[in-house]
Amino acid sequence: MEHTNNKLFSPADRYILEPIKKFIGNSTTSGIILFSSAFIALVISNSPWGDAYHHFWETTFTIGFGDMVLSKSLHHWINDGLMAVFFFVVGLELKREIVAGGLSDPKNAVLPIGAAIAGMVVPALIFTLFNFGGDGISGWGIPMATDIAFALGVLYLLGDRVPVSLKIFLTALAIADDLGAVLVVAFFYTSDIQLWNVLIGFGFMGVLMLANILGFRNTLFYAVMGIGGLWLAFLLSGVHATIAAVLAAFTIPVRVKASETVFSEKLSKLHQAFKEAKPNNQPTITSEQLHILEEIEYLTKKAQTPLQRLEHRMHPLVAFGIMPVFALANAGVQLQADQIQGMIAPVSVGVFFGLLAGKVLGVVGITLILIRLQIASMPEGMNMWHLFGAGFLAAIGFTMSLFITDLAFSDTNFIFQAKVGILSASIIASIIGFFLIKKGNKLIAE
Predict the structure, then answer these.
(1) What's the pLDDT score for residue 219?
(2) Is 323 in the same domain as 296?
(3) What's the confidence (pLDDT) of residue 23?
(4) Which of 301, 333, 366 represents a domain boundary (last residue)?
(5) Whether residue 24 has pLDDT greater than 50
(6) Are 139 and 54 in a shared domain?
(7) Is residue 251, in this structure, part of any structural domain at all?
(8) Are 263 and 303 in contact (CB under 8 A)?
(9) pLDDT score, position 45
(10) What's the pLDDT tens digit per position in 72-92?
């Protein structure tokens, strides 16, 4: 049988496509690539090519025709355009979790939502303590964010011995944290708002919602209306365009057209029909077989929710394309002798302790309080080592923190200081979190 299966794979499948699929399917891969991209950005920015690196991202790129043009630097296109795709996938994850995931049951959602809220408030307060009355106070939102890809990447490095309950807790926490970060960006990090464009954007959102209600499931329709309408209107309005991406994601249908029972029955009939179809004993298949396969493909599509299908297809693009490019464009920090003082400036210290201390105090503190008050209980299979480990993994800010830094500051010194705090805290938090959870796994094994 194995020999027969091997015949179905060409050398390109066996030695190129299948290994690539396996590599992409590995849960730790995206975290490793993201870390590698950040490391490459740091190395290049501190090499003889550092100036060329920074100038490259400021290259202007223009799209449009006639008087209707959008002209922005590559850096802005990445942060306003590509990151909108990232936030679209975040929105899809949020809706899935709210509809049928860890945030769907209020009883199960209390703990991760409470941990996410406290894990945002405490870091913001700590940053404010270090920067109160200073020019850097606008960066209070930077240490509030958790990088879900990095945090889960570290978690999956620990293998199958990690309790499933810990994975669910950290995932739900990070997703709730993402929602909080989106709200912070929407309400506190926007430029002057042009109300007319906002109204146009909500008009397009109304069309998308109506299409959902009427049963439209064509993803191309949602893409055109979401990007060409909702996203563009928000981009021109002054409200950060990534908010439009999340709103668009919430309009994607989450219902199937063929239930599990209907799918199973029809698939069985089609499978039997395919077995009974007379083959032509050629490399090609017959028209009858082709017709049956097309019906199977259509039936399979009807049995999937558009939301999950989009999320599944777009995840590799985000994990292996958009986020590494974002890291390359934003993680480059030039460490020069005259900037050493900036490494201990209020902004960098506020970000560092906001993430490393604030996240842990907020996540662990509120979790213990909720358990003590019997409002929630410790997830089955988790122990205190796991909880503290999750607190430190939640302190990995990286992607989201770098994103908010770009919105919070225009001063290059403040941007440098924030990046130093983000990178140093994220590295330390990932190491501590890794070993704490490893210790928790060891205690369970014993």
Answers:
(1) 77
(2) no
(3) 45
(4) 301
(5) no
(6) yes
(7) no
(8) yes
(9) 84
(10) 788 878 877 787 788 788 788
Residues 6+ apart with CB under 8 A from 445: 161
Q: What is the mean pLDDT of residues 330-341?
A: 66
Could you tell me if 276 and 344 lie in one domain? no
Q: Which tens digit of pLDDT belongs to each residue from 287-321?
A: 888 999 999 998 888 888 888 888 888 888 887 88
Token pair belonging to 26: 């590995």
Parent domain of 144: 27-83+107-183+315-445
Is 382 among the domain residues?
yes
Give residue for tokens 């077989």.
Answer: 289
Say whether both 347 and 273 belong to one domain. no
Asked which of 60-64, 110-114, 212-216 is least confident by mean pLDDT, the reply is 60-64
State the Cα–Cα distance between residues 322 and 315, nearest whole angstrom: 10
Average of per-residue pLDDT values in the chain: 82
On whether the CB atoms of residues 332 and 44 are closer than 8 A, the answer is yes
Contacts of 304 (CB under 8 A, 6+ apart): 256
**pLDDT tens track for 34-54:** 778 888 988 898 888 888 888
Kindly report the CATH number assigned to the domain that includes residue 349. 1.20.1530.10
140 with 287, same domain: the answer is no
User: Do 139 and 285 lie in a common domain?
Assistant: no
pLDDT of residue 69: 72
Domain membership of residue 58 (yes or no) is yes
Distance, in Å, from the CA atom of 145 to the CA atom of 222, rounded to the nearest integer, reads 28
Could you read off the pLDDT of 231-285 as tens digits, one per residue?
778 877 766 667 778 888 888 888 888 888 899 999 999 999 998 888 888 888 8
3-state secondary structure the chain: CHHHHHHCCCHHHHHHHHHHHHHHHCCCHHHHHHHHHHHHHHHHHCCCCHHHHHHHHCCEEEEEECCEEEEEEHHHHHHHHHHHHHHHHHHHHHHHHHHHCCCCCHHHHHHHHHHHHHHHHHHHHHHHHHHCCCHHHHHHHHHHCCCHHHHHHHHHHCHHHCCHHHHHHHHHHHHHHHHHHHHHHHHHCCCCCCHHHHHHHHHHHHHHHHHHHHCCCCHHHHHHHHHHHHHHHHHHHCCCHHHHHHHHHCCCCCCCCCCHHHHHHHHHHHHHHHHHCCCCCCCCCCHHHHHHHHHHHHHHHHCCCHHHHHHHHHHHHHHHHHHHHHHHHHCCCCCCHHHHHHHHCHHHHHHHHHHHHHHHHHHHHHHHHHHHCCCCCCCCCCCHHHHHHHHHHCCCCHHHHHHHHHHHCCCHHHHHHHHHHHHHHHHHHHHHHHHHHHHHHHHHHC
Note whether 389 and 414 are same-domain residues. Answer: yes
Pair (281, 357) in one structural domain? no
Q: Is there a contact between 53 and 45 (Cβ–Cβ < 8 Å)?
A: yes
